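Our working data are protein records whose layout never changes between entries. The record below serves as our worked example for the rest of this section:
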Amino acid sequence: MTLKITTLAERPELTTPLWHLAEDWPEFIRHDPVGWSLMGRIVAELPEYVLVATDEEADGKVVARAFSVPFALRDREDGALPDGGWDQVLLWAYSDLRHGKETDTVSAIEITVDKSARGTGLSGRMLAAMRDNARARGFTEVVAPVRPNAKHLEPAASIDEYAYRTREDGLPHDPWLRVHVRAGGVVEKVAHASMTVSGSVAQWREWTGLPFDEEGPVEVPGALVPVHCEPARGYGVYVEPNVWVRHTV
């Protein structure tokens, strides 16, 4: 694979192809209202913070994308990263953009690798490119509300324990957290309410293929923690925890 990584601002013709990656996000994730409202705006309004990787040996096929956003962290709560995680940082970024605030930090939002390019270390290369892009734009810090990519295998495990679980070599147990730490990131805190997806029982049945007919926690494939189901009231709510990682660039 001969990889070329550029910003979308440099190659706007990739705007449509970058959405056509063969990905495997759980269906319910697509129904987070914050992401649904704002992800497309990153491409339209902040293309210099969108990175696209193409395989030049495959006629320029898009094999990965990375979204990030600049925001004013130091204006808020003494620079503390928000418990609201992914949703909150997106809302902050677009509030800052609307009000013309001077930004001081870049937050990672998503790195997605096409199924055809998995297992090649491409996610780490996209993270490195995101860090380089932030540095080139004058930032000294990148933060990331990391979605631990093996936590769904242990939905009942405490995120507070899981986030800091390490292997014998001292690196994180979770593979995606491990990529961040190897790149120089530091696990800072858990964002316990990083993303919230609510829907009717009928919607959850459609998204998951599960009956959602019993009250209480429901383990859903791809979910990091159980979904809370209230069939008598007709709804279910998923509150996803992420892990904040801070990178100095």
